[in-house]
Amino acid sequence: MSAQHPPSAGHTVAETAPLALEVRDLLTRFVTKRVALTAVDGISIAVRRGRIMALVGESGSGKSVTGLSIMGLIDPPGQIAGGEVRVGGQRFDVTDDRQMRRLRGNRLAMIFQDPMMTLNPVLRISRQMTEAITTHHPEVTRAEARARAHSALALVGIPSPRERLDNFPHQLSGGMRQRVAIATALLNNPEVIIADEPTTALDVTIQSQILYEVERVCETHGTAFVWITHDLSVVANLAHDVTVMYAGRIVETGPVRDVLENPLHPYTRGLIDSVPDIDIRKGKLIPIAGMTPQLADLPQGCKFAPRCPLRVPECAAEPPLVTRADGRAVRCVRPLDTEPPR
Amino acid sequence: MTALVELSGIGRRFTRKLDVAAKILNLLGGSYREQVVHAVDGVDLSISAGEVLALVGESGCGKSTLGRIVAGILPSSSGTMSFRGRDVAALAGTDRLAWVRSIQMVFQDPMTSLNPRKSVFEAISEAPVYHRIFSRAEAPAKVARLLSNVGLDPQFANRMPHELSGGQRQRVAIAQALAVKPEVLVCDEATSALDVSIQAQILNMFLELKEEFGLTYLFISHNLGAVRHVADRVVIMYLGQVVEVAPADDLFATPHHPYTRALLLEAPRLERRRRFEPIRGEIPSPLDPPSGCYFHPRCPMATDRCRTERPILRETGGDRVAACHYAEMVSPPDALAPSSEAPEPGHMKPGRAPLSAEAPRSE
Amino acid sequence: MTAAPDITRPPRLRRFAADFVRSPIAVVGLVIFVTLCIMAALAPLISPQNPYDMMTLNLMDSRLRPGEVGSAGYVHLLGTDDQGRDIWSAIVYGLRISLGVGLGAGGIAAVIGTSVGIFAAFRGGMVETVLMRLVDFQLSFPAILVALIMLAVLGPGVDKVIFALVIAQWAYFARTARSAALVESRRDYIAGAHSLGLGQWRIIFGHLLPNSVPAVMVIAAIQVANAILLEATLSFLGMGLPVTEPSLGMVISNGFQHILSGRYWMTIYPGIALVLLVLSLNLIGDRLRELLDPRKVL
Questions:
Q1: Of A118, A272, B53, B309, which residue has the fewest beta carbons closer than 10 angstroms?
Q2: C-alpha distances out from residue A142 to A120, A135, A163, B37, B257, Å
Q3: Is the CB of A285 less than 8 angstroms away from the CB of B229?
Q4: A122 contact partners, CB below 8 Å, separation of at least 6
């Protein structure tokens, strides 16, 4: 039934647009005297221009560390132990701080759950935004930078942007601050924006305003987004593609409608079933048994097997992520659309 | 059903008093005023025995403050609250203690709701031993029983809070509340900080405990999905005031307040992609609420009347009340969705059978 | 039914100790402090004479240089003072008094100050305002001034010095304990304890106090060091302890008049002992603050 789903505007973006971001075999480890753990274990994602890729997972899935690793923002004891990142086809060394500094805020930008991560509380909005431009483009005049800041604020739906420019961050509401953070990220027209749970702390009505603006920006500017979230219903409303992470690994990836309507991995299915539905009268939810595993103490074989209701003996060996003919990929010995052997 | 808890005209003000400097400046012609926030503003509400009453609203609407007033943690600054027909302000001694114990609270953040220096055993057994609900000698067996009630292995009694995951802490917090044999549980965003898969476990557990212990719930949440899942009746609050109360099914099908309708419309859903412009504007500051109806600056239906005349909560038929001049004209949330996006029958949620608990047989 | 859970103490303390020793400088501080404490405790055993037993003093031995052999036949490692008193023995006995006064005053001030602070935080309202204004008032005077005034009124004596130091220091504890308790009392588990119907003393002693103690411990180390310094200053000024109970401060003061005549040992060695004592406490305090800082991500 999903096949008849009418194509909506968000899906009209050419599926053949050039790749904005490509990450291959990213490996991030945290090593201290007490523990050594792999937070991101061989993640590969690719996002085309003007598309939104959602990175979904629960706590400890490694989704946030993946975002920070792509930005080259991993501090010791963490280290990026392998992998490669390409922005607009050009390869970058995520461990080279000087190279990444030129990239960050310019061709690659990030927004966080707490907008105050990027906003300086003692500087006016205008100062912060113009500096974000002139740091990377010293040839731009202040007046020009201010004009660009103004239009960026207007772009994300901030009413009376001229006054807002002269405000300090604390004079704005949480939703407005997040819009300013998004506008700041947009200033240098980056190819990719990595968004780490940017609407999680916001109220529903404010969240939907921001999702609406982000979708427009994505369509009009061709910006690619990696949208990190735990909220599947946000994914359903915003993303074009989705990658589901569990215990530092990708368990499933594919177009958002396909994944949500016909999940291939039992974990994806479990997540979907766990979301209480607004439109259906109450009844028992179908939760996933057990708890999210500790990265320092992962089970052997398939990491989801101990919680999986469909576990079979073959799960004792960890299956590889298999890409299928339809472009979807799944890490499971028996994906949900395979017929059980008779 | 009889009313277990009855609130009438409950209000809670928070005042930021002037400091000495401001007072002196005022004498010299300054114009500093005390800032008063009506976090909860004249709420009438009754909670019936055995029901799950959900309290829904966005940040700053006063739902948490109201929850704390009901749980007896925060005094109200106006109005009266009665428990089993007796005004709680007049209760003293053991009667007062009985009331306090009868209403327990489960908090949002499982990281701060347990004393970090007490083991699970100490946390659960402290209050009931203090109140002589059971003796110190009986405590180990009782604690083990309570732990299994909330789905934890009795071995957890030895753990310290920092050794537990968020979901486990929340279960311990619930066991701690159950230990004093409450009648009402006030759950303040009790599942919001948890992972989705854990949230579903805890929501199911709330429903099971309700049957097992005959509990009544005041379920405070901003998550409409969770509310739909557990609630019998729903109260919608906006800026400290109740704007609508209705049985859950009726409210979700036909909201009588434009704000309720907006909430239903804006809540992202798994099944469909929204393609229309969201409701405009920010939640106003409770320090300086708008004139007339508090919702009018954001309301698509607002008229001049709404800008000047504050609507009162009035009956709108079928056990329902709403505070809107035009309650009868509020359209159901589906009506505004573009036709291309209107859910076809059967499209709502792919009708899948639940995952079978048994693994398929493999030869 | 399962067996009674066996309540084991968590390995918190062990982990804390393990964290503590990861800073070498703090370990040095701890070693110095413990050594000084042992020296003070074993004073009669490790010193050749009781420097304040007039019978053992011999004026013939006065002003001996370090290393010289006195009339009693043993080496005066650090020399003697103008009354023939062995400096090493004076230091060891002086340490005893200084440590005793410092720990005593710091301890009593900690108990009083913490109680006041936590009570103020718990009760709030008028009680809190009055108590905290009192604290502010007290803190606006330098501690040395408060102690001097107290001693001028009370006269000399170990108990009076301790009393004066407690008066000078309790306010620091009260302020720290109050802010720690305020942070804790806003946490949900305190609201939960109220909701469970626990009595106020149970909440204060069972919940608020144990969780506020770490913050108090940090300043306790520093305040004990301050008490020792304060006492030494008072003794140096001749306002503190009676001559019969000479602390390090008085030993330094006695030797001080000779420093210009080249007999440095009478004042430098006790001075070094005092510096080591105060320094070691400060090192320990700094490490405690690092480990117990609420902003530290564990």
A1: B309
A2: 19, 12, 17, 41, 48
A3: yes
A4: A168
ipTM of the complex: 0.81
Q: Where are the domains of chain C?
A: 22-44+76-292
Q: In the 3-class helix/strand/coil scheme, how is A3-16 assigned residue by residue? A: HHCCCCHHHHCCCC
How far is residue B128 from each of residues A194, B139, B153, B217, C197, measured CA to CA in Å?
A: 50, 9, 20, 21, 10
Class of domain B3-231: alpha beta
Q: Are C5 and B113 a contacting pair at CB < 8 A?
A: no
pLDDT, tens digit (0-9, with 9 covering 90-100), for C70-98:
777 777 777 777 777 788 888 888 888 88
pLDDT digits (tens, 9 = 90+) for A291-335: 888 888 888 899 999 999 998 998 999 999 999 888 899 999 988
| Nearest CA-CA partner of A277 in B262, B252, B188 | B252
Give the residue on B whose Cα is nearest the Cα of C183: B112
Q: Which residues pair with B1 in a beta bridge?
A: none
CATH assignment, A2-258? 3.40.50.300
User: Which parts of A170-268 are beta strand (E)?
Assistant: 192-196, 224-229, 241-246, 249-255
Give the closest-approach CA distance of B281 to chain C in angstroms.
Answer: 32
Domain residue ranges of chain B, discontinuous segments joined by +: 3-231, 261-335
**Distance from C-alpha of A227 to C-alpha of C185, rounded to nearest angstrom:** 37
B59: burial class by Cβ within 10 Å (0-12, 13-18, 19+)? middle
| Yes or no: domain C22-44+76-292 corresponds to CATH 3.90.1150.10 | no
Contacts of B169 in chain A (CB under 8 A): none
- The secondary structure of A141-157 as a DSSP string is -HHHHHHHHHHHHHHTT
Closest CA of chain C from B139, distance in Å: 8
Torsion over CA of A107, A112, A117 and A121, rounded to 10 degrees? 90
Cβ distance A234 to B268 less than 8 Å, yes or no, reads: yes
Across the interface, whether the CB atoms of B204 and A341 are under 8 A apart is answered no
Smallest CA–CA distance, residue A322 to chain B, in Å, is 21
